[in-house]
Amino acid sequence: MITCVVDYVISPAKLDAFEAFAKAWMTLVAEHGGVHHGYFLPSEGASDRALALFSFESLAAYERYRKGFGVDPAFIAADRLRDESGCVLRYDRSFMRPLLPALARGTNAERP
């Protein structure tokens, strides 16, 4: 399993637009074989930072999902929400291997 962690710098004045953007992407990840763990929005502290975490069974599965970028109308519409609103100022994407509670308890001894 591979988890994509996206660290966003967002416009605090455009949080509603960011939430609409986030909801669209949560649906798209699920429709294309991933598991979205949610967006984590500002509450206390920094008001311009948000995170998203979503997983795919493998890097190959993630790459299949990425093939829709710039091509699939639903992907284009979701990006349009971000671009036209200006809610995202910058983002960085990194990949991690999760250690989930079920794995820590030993219910799944296999490591990806």
UniProtKB/TrEMBL annotation:
UniProt-recorded name of the protein = NIPSNAP family protein
Q: Which Gene3D superfamilies match?
A: 3.30.70.100
A Pfam family that the UniProt record links to this protein: NIPSNAP
* UniProt domain NIPSNAP: residue ranges: 7-99
Organism encoding this protein: Allosphingosinicella deserti
- Lineage, uppermost ranks: Bacteria, Pseudomonadati, Pseudomonadota, Alphaproteobacteria, Sphingomonadales
The cross-references to InterPro entries, in alphabetical order and at most eight, read: Dimeric_a/b-barrel, NIPSNAP
